[in-house]
Structure formats: structure tokens, C-alpha cells
């Protein structure tokens, strides 16, 4: 069985540990590779090399750093199909979904290439007689990137291009469930011309995260994953004086107003709930209607959900792939049972779905609960699968109150023709990424990915925009007097 390699010291190297984690093709249900738990000496070696490399890398002129990013961008475009196929095979999402992820990763490389504008300093002449003052932005050192399984390539690229563009070096620790597309990307990163040890890869699970947290030479951590782990990484990292930004879990509400253009927008709503098999931190999870549009919305929602073609994401016309693991499917099925036990009405049951061609795949068909009460477990907890809950309310204020009760605040969307309600929604909803007639409110690379509440720990958000400039640089203020 193939072992996933690390990339340390400018080359692919075999891990020191024994195989510990299985990487599956979740559509076929077979193990396709193995991952070892990273050892402390591997992490420390990579960090020492990155620490030394950073001192030289920060001296490389900005235009030369940018040239490498442009080269990487071109290499990624050239390899897009190969990267997407690897992603589909390790994760299960469809080839088109995977291609979308790679495009978003490439957009972050492009966006980071604009770094020269963003890290320009500030200055004032004559803050006193013959005294000038300026602020310069400087790189910080070594950053670690720890990513989740659901966007194996895209999420490390929310951080890596910006960190290195600003003169830092990085160690990437992908999810042990989906490490293959980042492993492949290291080949492109090397080919693009990054000097040795500017970007390195160490695979593993919790133990590697702990070695990263313990290592004093790591200045900051960009984490994305579930809320308990995000909170752990945030608290431990910041207590050790590291900068930490940590994206976390979600429970996203989609409000469909009576005036919404349901006929045209239902495919978009369906994409939000069942795209990526619901394993998206921006996925719709609770559909909120009013009494007056309940029947129309629910009928259309169920009709469209039933038509989705489920299967192996590399095959044509497949709309939805499997879940990541058999255990994860069982966890989602448990939530369905909890929904039934707590009294919600199961109006579409995906549990008995069987794929004849791939009988061992971890498939679960779309599942929909109606008459869900906001206090039920399925309305409150992140399920991370193709399960939708429908809550019916009396009016906009009540709908908003229910949405804002959630402990999460990653995303929320409103479907309406009313500018007034759209504007009110933006002002009053407690979510960081907001969609107006858009079901997956995924910010483009040059905007931050703005989660709130238990969906984010830290203050400077992932992805592009000012937040990243501040996260990956420190500022120095220089006060100077030059007199005759
Ligand atoms: P996860 O928390 O299990 O794992 C994330 C990373 O943390 C992985 O690299 C993993 O190896 C590591 N890890 C796991 N357990 C750990 C532990 N006990 N101690 C230290 N490190 C540990 O998350 P996942 O299942 O891979 O990803 C799904 C979750 O990520 C969902 O909750 C989803 O909402 C969230 N997510 C959030 C965003 C966002 O931007 N807010 C984006 C994508 C996914």
C-alpha cells in the first residue's frame, strides 16, 4: 500500500512512523493509501529548516517572490484536471466540484500576487520639526497551516500563498483523511521555484498538531476544522504566544421569503444543501420558510432533491458523491434517527439508498425533515451530511430570532425580491458570510472568509483582504530626525 510522503528539506521523504491512518476512495469504499503519524523529530526538523529559510526568503525582493507565485498559478492551471481527479478520489466530491475547489485555490495564488500593494507602509513627514514617522510591515517567521478533510487542496491555499508572499515560510499539515492533493501540489510548488524549505509538508493527525503547538519557533497557526479542535488549537496556541486564526464548525440557515423566485432559484438552494454531500462549512442545513410559502417551497425542494444523481464523482452526470467515511455516514444516520425520535417528520429518507455499481461506497441520499422545532438536536448541531431540516415561522422577525439563536455563525442566506428585507437581513443576522439569493456564500479570494460566534476563533479571518495582511505581518514604527 502506498504511503503518503512528507516534503521536508526540499524533497519528498518517506515518513519515519508506521502506517496509522487509511485514505479511502469513499465512492468505492477501498483504502488507496496510508498515512503515518508524524514524529516530533520530523516536525522539529521541518520547523528548523523553515526558520533558517525564512531569514533568507524575507530578503528576496517582492517582485521575485511574486514571479514564483505566477509560475505556480500557471502550473496549477496546467494540472487542474489531475489535481481535481486526485481530490475526487480521496474525498468523494464530484469532479466538477473538485475543479471548483482548485480554481478557488488558484484565485488565492493570484490574489496573493497583489501583495506589493497591500504591504505598502504608511508615513507622515514633519510630525515634529524635521521629524518623520513611518510604519513598515515586516514578515514574522514560520507559520503552520492545519486543514480539514473537506477541501483538501483549497483550504491550505487560503493561507500559504499570502504567508509566503509576505516573506514568511510555512509548514502544511493536511487532514490525515485527504492528504493526496496537497502531496501532489508540493511537486508544483517545487517546480514553481520556491527556494528550499519555504513550503514544507508534514503529514499526520493530532500528534503532529501538538508538536506544532509545542514548537517555539512557530510564530503563528492558521487552522480550519471542527469547533472543539479549533478552540483547543486557539487556546493552546495563543497561551504560547502564537498568533492563531481558527475557522470552525457551522450550522447554516437559509431563509426563503414568500416573494422569492423559487422556480429559478431552487437549484441554487439544492446546491447549498446537497453539494459536496453536505460536507461543506457553508452548506445550507436548516431551511426556514413562512407558513404562507411552506407547501410551495417544500414540494419544490423535495422534487429537486429526489432528482439528484448519486455516485462516483469521476463519472459523468453525477451530482452528489459519498460521505467521507463509513463511520461518518453512521454518525449522520444516527442524527436522522434522533430527528425521528424527537418528533420531526421525515419526508425524504436517504438511508436506504444503494449504489449498484459501487455497493461498498459510503453513500447517503438526500434526507429531509419537515416540521422541525428550533430546539431539536437536528436544528442545532452540525450534521455535516445531506440532511436538511425545515422550520416554519410566522414572520421575518421570528425567523431571524431563530437563526440568531444558533451558537454558530458561519453563513446564512436569504432568498427574496425585497431590497428592504435583504438589507435588514444583512444588518441583523449573526453570520459572517451572507448570501442574498445565493445559497453558498463563499467569498472570493480577495475577501476574508468571515465566520462568527463558535464558527471562528481569533480576530483576523482566513483568505485574502486586509485581515491576512495583518495576520501574516507585524508592524514597525520608525521615527527619524534628519537635520542639517
Ligand atoms: P477536524 O477538526 O476533525 O480536523 C481538522 C484538523 O485538525 C485535521 O488536520 C486533524 O488532523 C486535526 N485534528 C483532529 N482532531 C484533533 C485533535 N483532537 N487535536 C488536534 N488536532 C486534531 O475537522 P474535519 O472533520 O477534518 O473537518 C470538518 C469540520 O471542519 C467541520 O466541522 C466543518 O464545519 C469545519 N470546516 C470549517 C470551515 C470554516 O472555514 N469555518 C471550513 C471547512 C471545514
Structure description:
The chain is an alpha/beta fold and 484 residues long. The protein is 38% helix and 23% strand. It folds into 2 domains: 6-248 and 455-481, 3-Layer(aba) Sandwich (Aldehyde Dehydrogenase, Chain A, domain 1); 252-436, Aldehyde Dehydrogenase, Chain A, domain 2 (3-Layer(aba) Sandwich). Helix 2 packs across helix 7 and helix 4 (95-112) runs parallel beside helix 6. It is globular and about 80 Å long. The protein starts with 5 loop residues before the first strand and ends with a strand. The model has no long low-confidence stretch (mean pLDDT 97). Bound molecules: nicotinamide-adenine-dinucleotide (NAD).
Q: Can you tag this structure with a few keywords?
A:
Aldehyde Dehydrogenase, Chain A, domain 2; 2 domains; 484 residues; Aldehyde Dehydrogenase, Chain A, domain 1; seven-stranded mixed sheet; 16 helices; binds nicotinamide-adenine-dinucleotide; alpha/beta
Give the low-pLDDT segments: none
Give the biggest sheet. 7 strands, mixed
Cα(first) to Cα(last) distance is 74 Å
Number of domains: 2
Reported by name, the CATH topology of the largest domain is Aldehyde Dehydrogenase, Chain A, domain 1
The counted number of beta strands is 22
- Helical residues, percent: 25-40%
CATH architecture assignment name of the largest domain? 3-Layer(aba) Sandwich
Rg computed from alpha carbons, rounded to a whole number of angstroms: 23 Å
Which CATH first-tier class of the largest domain would you pick? Answer: Alpha Beta
The unique ligands bound to this protein are: nicotinamide-adenine-dinucleotide
Overall geometry: globular
Mean model confidence by pLDDT: 97
Within the largest sheet, what's the order of strands? 14-15-16-13-12-18-19
Amino acid at each position: 500500500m502506498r504511503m503518503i510522503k512528507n516534503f521536508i528539506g526540499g524533497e519528498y521523504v518517506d515518513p519515519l512512523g508506521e502506517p496509522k491512518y487509511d485514505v479511502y476512495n469513499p465512492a468505492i469504499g477501498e483504502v488507496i493509501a496510508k498515512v503515518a503519524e508524524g514524529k516530533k523529530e520530523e516536525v522539529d526538523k521541518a520547523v528548523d529548516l523553515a526558520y533558517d529559510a525564512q531569514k533568507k526568503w524575507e530578503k528576496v525582493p517582492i517582485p521575485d517572490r511574486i514571479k514564483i507565485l505566477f509560475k505556480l498559478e500557471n502550473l496549477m492551471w496546467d494540472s487542474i484536471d489531475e489535481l481535481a481527479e486526485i481530490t475526487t478520489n480521496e474525498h468523494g466530491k464530484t469532479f466538477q466540484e473538485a475543479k471548483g475547489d482548485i480554481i478557488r485555490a488558484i484565485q488565492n495564488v493570484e490574489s496573493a500576487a497583489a501583495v506589493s500593494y497591500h504591504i505598502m507602509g504608511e508615513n507622515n513627514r514633519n510630525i515634529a520639526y524635521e521629524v518623520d514617522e513611518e510604519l513598515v510591515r515586516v514578515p514574522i517567521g514560520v507559520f503552520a497551516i492545519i486543514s480539514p478533510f473537506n477541501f483538501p487542496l483549497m483550504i491550505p491555499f487560503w493561507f500559504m500563498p499570502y504567508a509566503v508572499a509576505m516573506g514568511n515560510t510555512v509548514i502544511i499539515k493536511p487532514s490525515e483523511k485527504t492528504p493526496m492533493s496537497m502531496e501532489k501540489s508540493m511537486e508544483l510548488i517545487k517546480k514553481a521555484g520556491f527556494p528550499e524549505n519555504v513550503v514544507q509538508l508534514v503529514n499526520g493527525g493530532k500528534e503532529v498538531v501538538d508538536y506544532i503547538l509545542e514548537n517555539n519557533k512557530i510564530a503563528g497557526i492558521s487552522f480550519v476544522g471542527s469547533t472543539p479542535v479549533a478552540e483547543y488549537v486557539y487556546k493552546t496556541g495563543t497561551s504560547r504566544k502564537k498568533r492563531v486564526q481558527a475557522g470552525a464548525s457551522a450550522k447554516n440557515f437559509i431563509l426563503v421569503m414568500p416573494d422569492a423566485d423559487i422556480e429559478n432559484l431552487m437549484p441554487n438552494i439544492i446546491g447549498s444543501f446537497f453539494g459536496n454531500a453536505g460536507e461543506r462549512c457553508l452548506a445550507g442545513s436548516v431551511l426556514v420558510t413562512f407558513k404562507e410559502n411552506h407547501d410551495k417551497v417544500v414540494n419544490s425542494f423535495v422534487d429537486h432533491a429526489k432528482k439528484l444523481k448519486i455516485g462516483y464523482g469521476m463519472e459523468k452526470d453525477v451530482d452528489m458523491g459519498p460521505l467521507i467515511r463509513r463511520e461518518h455516514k453512521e454518525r449522520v444516520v444516527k442524527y436522522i434517527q434522533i430527528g425521528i425520535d424527537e418528533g420531526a417528520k421525515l419526508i425524504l429518507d436517504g438511508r436506504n439508498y444503494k449504489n449498484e455499481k459501487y455497493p461498498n461506497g459510503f453513500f447517503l441520499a438526500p434526507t429531509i425533515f419537515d416540521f422541525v422545532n428550533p430546539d431539536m438536536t437536528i436544528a442545532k448541531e452540525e450534521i455535516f451530511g445531506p440532511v436538511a431540516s425545515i422550520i416554519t415561522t410566522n414572520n421575518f422577525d421570528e425567523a431571524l430570532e431563530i437563526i440568531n439563536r444558533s451558537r454558530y455563525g458561519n453563513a446564512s442566506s436569504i432568498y427574496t425580491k425585497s431590497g428592504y428585507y435583504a438589507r435588514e437581513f444583512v444588518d441583523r443576522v449573526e453570520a459572517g458570510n451572507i448570501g442574498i439569493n445565493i445559497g453558498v456564500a463563499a467569498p472570493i479570494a480577495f475577501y476574508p472568509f468571515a465566520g462568527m460566534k463558535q464558527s471562528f476563533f481569533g480576530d483576523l479571518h482566513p483568505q485574502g483582504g486586509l485581515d491576512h495582511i495583518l495576520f501574516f505581518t507585524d508592524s514597525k514604527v520608525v521615527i527619524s530626525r534628519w537635520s542639517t
